[in-house]
Specification:
Layout lengths: L2 E2 L2 E2 L8 E2 L2 H11 L6 E5 L5 H9 L4 E4 L4 H8 L7 E4 L16 E6 L5 H9 L5 E9 H8 L9 H9 E9 L4 E2 L6 E8 L10 H12 L6 H4 L6 H6 L13 H16 L5 H11 L6
Parallel strand pairs: 4-5, 4-7, 5-6, 7-8
Antiparallel strand pairs: 1-2, 3-10, 8-11, 9-11
Helix pairs in contact: 1-2, 4-6, 5-6, 7-10
Bound molecules: S-adenosylmethionine (SAM).
S-adenosylmethionine binds next to β3, α2 and β5.
Length: 287
């Protein structure tokens, strides 16, 4: 536990506060905030990044879950009357209410304990987002940027790349934080595509196919997607059924999902496939 400004860092909120001025400056340079940007910070904590952004953009808005930090932030930044603090949970927060007509620039040194569900929630809101800059565990950034064939290629990378261009920027060691986390960190920039490069006819079906495939990532597609598509259907799409889920591109997954959607629309889906998919959509949170 580390104590700063009278606040005890809380593990359950994923609190590792940045204190290295060099790292903070590098993050600010990467974000490149401008006075008129609509910037939203997730998890301002004790305000290490907040302070530097406010100096350029006094209309900054923040979303913080730990209610004990709210008075600390109010006191520290009392001289910024347009600074807005939203006490709430970023996992369920409706970011569209913050836009005021302008696309948002979302930033944050995110709580690592909830980073994957938080990224999925943010991906569902990319319609109101200009760009996002996040500090995450290094492995999470690697998974987001992974390409077919990489060991860490999976659901997180495919769905992030469905919505965004992913740019890993630089790594940050544990010593930049108090308390120091046990893992390395990295900064990533996510820029939502203005037009999706591989739009799926039905997003839910794409998510279900990707989840089912990677629940059996070591198996061949024939087995991993059994009950979802037949070997003949895979071959008709030009996909070798002997490959593994990690070998398929986003475009391949979209083509499988679209085939299933088309089948569903024409009422041709097999009862077995429907049952398997229903199980999957309601299923786990594996990534
Ligand atoms: N930005 C600060 C910094 O860089 O020093 C703090 C970063 S700390 C890694 C993560 C922050 O996110 C903490 O302030 C924590 O209280 C906050 N947080 C944790 N879970 C949250 C949630 N679900 N919604 C909003 N904020 C959350």
């Amino acid at each position: 536990m580390s104590k700063k400004a009278g606040h005890q860092a809380r593990k359950r909120f994923g609190q590792n506060f940045l204190h290295d001025p060099g790292v903070i400056e590098r993050i600010i340079r990467a974000i490149h905030p401008k006075p008129d940007d609509a910037i939203v910070e997730i998890g301002p904590g004790l305000g290490a990044i907040t302070e530097e952004i406010l100096a350029v953009n006094p209309k900054l808005q923040v979303v913080e879950l730990d209610r004990d930090l709210i008075p600390v932030l109010r006191t520290k930044f009392f001289n910024y009357p347009d600074f807005r603090i939203h006490e709430g949970d970023a996992l369920t927060f409706d970011f569209s209410q913050l836009t005021d007509g302008k696309p948002l620039r979302i930033i944050g040194n995110l709580p690592y304990n909830i980073s994957t569900p938080l990224i999925f929630h943010l991906l569902s809101q990319t319609g109101v987002v200009q760009d996002m800059h996040f500090m995450l565990q290094k492995e999470v950034v690697q998974r987001m940027a992974a390409v077919p064939g990489d060991n860490n290629y999976g659901r997180l990378g495919i769905m992030t790349q469905y919505f965004c261009k992913v740019q890993p920027l630089f790594e940050v060691g544990p010593g930049a934080f108090r308390p120091a986390p046990k893992v390395d960190s990295a900064i990533v920039r996510l820029v939502p595509h203005t037009e999706l490069p591989h739009p799926a006819k039905d997003l839910g079906t794409l998510q279900a196919v990707v989840r089912t495939a990677f629940n059996a990532r070591r198996k061949t597609l024939r087995k991993a997607l059994a009950g979802v598509v037949t070997v003949e259907q895979l071959l008709a799409l030009g996909i070798n059924d002997g490959l593994r889920p990690e070998n398929l591109s986003l475009a391949d997954y979209v083509s499988i999902a679209d085939l299933i959607t088309a089948e569903k629309e024409s009422g041709q889906g097999s009862a077995q496939a429907d049952e398997s998919r229903a199980k999957d959509v309601s299923g786990d949170t594996h990534d």
